[in-house]
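Quick log. Single chain, no ligands specified.
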Amino acid sequence: MTRSYVTERDAGLPSEGPAKGAVLPGLGWLITVALAYTLSQFLFVTTHLGLGFDESVYTSQVSPHAPAAFFSAPRARGISFLVAPVAALTYSTTALRCYLMVLSGAGLLGALWVWRRLLSDRTLAVAGLVFVSLWITQFYGPQVMPNLWVALGALASVGFYLRSVVTAHAGRADPDRWRMGTGNGLTGHGSLLGVMLCLAAVVQVRPPDGFWLVLPLVVASLVVRDWRRPAVFWALAIGLIAGGAQWVVESYMRYGGILARLHTSGRVEGGLSWNLAFGDQLKALAGRTLCRPCTVPWRDKADSLWWLAVPVVVVLGLYVARRAGRQAVVLVPVFCGLSMAVPYLLLINYAAPRFLLPSYALLALPVGECLVWLSAGAGSPRLRRAGAVLVVLALAGQLVSQNIVLTRTVARNEQAHDDFARIANGLREFGVTPPCLVTGTNAIPIGYAAGCASGATSGNNANTTAASIMRTARHRPVAVLVPRGHSVPVYAGSWSPHGMATSRQLGTYTVYISPAEAEHPSGGTQSADEGATRVEEAGCASRASLCKLRARWRRRRAGRPAAGAAPPVATARRWQWRTCPVSSS
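-> predicted structure:
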């Protein structure tokens, strides 16, 4: 019989995994893809890229460098916990980027490894290469952003889920064919534990994405009789509860409950309603990290053609998997990928390419199936060489075009982030040093770079008022950032203006700085540290009494200095409560 793609060793379902002598060579392909991913980040994204707006919010929650920035309702703390081991020890952005580059490569390897008993190493290597070839995947590898980690967690979660239902069913049908716990696999209980842990991680990083991920898995467990096992439902439920517990508790402590937080989240995101965002996502693929509102024309169309080809290749991959008898293994991640894309393609009125990273990771599996099939001659041995050349050229072209977009995107962001650091350095030269407050446009990244608290009186990150800012200015330096063409707040009209030289990317800024020293309301003067103490306690009171008690407890542990004496900076910082920023005063 002529040997074809379908009659290869990995054609059946479930796969028997790599042969005993081929475990390391097969795993070597996956290791190579993961190492290439990490190396591409070092080469093309660079390690000295400064922190952006959202990154500053997440990092400030665990970093001793500056008070925690305002944490809006849609955010979750999983990504802050992920970077805490480095951010809590050093302010070095380079160290943080290197840590995430290495960790993202290891995460990709782990997520692909989960699938080794379900798909061939060739398919997984090609799928991994397709996923990491995207400029979005490379750009967000070293970023303090949640979407890539949701993608890797979702990929691992679906893999563990399929191992727990498919392999267990095969084991009951033919115990001699499938011995759990041997080779590179886990036991049935181990796969369920993997489902719990990976799903909990996804929910912890981004709770709404966890919901859209679980939905198809629950439906599949209900529809497929052989998968209808209580242990699977328990694993999914425990993963959701474990991952969402902290988010639920925080919802009641800070936002008035779960429904109130969801309502606030929807308002911050512009409202959740029926809205087709396919065109917006297509426009953003040319290198826009955020397209809101996405009223720009569709330029650089060639850079987005791959997006239009994905549905065709995915359908071909499903066809190939069906011929090989493993349609369930490929169909489930397709349904999960489509489900996780629903809110970003149908329910919001703006676009960011990173939102679809989980969908791209899951859809890469049928794409890998299709490309391996084409490289094998699409079932015809005579076309094997032509098919292999075609696939190699297609992947090479995709890599080149995506890295061109990546280079442009990194350059733009590097200019803007350098401007943040430049303005922060200028603030220090003008006497705005910790404890201090920065407000105005881009106050969060600039304030974090300067080591200051940040505040806003309007917009999605509003956490203070003009009256509170004026009271704060009596006790410590306050800077208001005003881009050219924007009006100066009334309370800062008499403050000292200072021009800031920035790049064309960020534009011209004028910084208005409060007087260096103000009289205390009682007639005396007050040190900056005493002012910071009063502001923090006021901010805590406006948030929750528990926050205020924690701040006082931490201060008591550190030891409060005698009246009239300014405490050392190190002592003052020891008792600052990270979830209660001083800018909320």
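The two ends are 78 Å apart (CA to CA).
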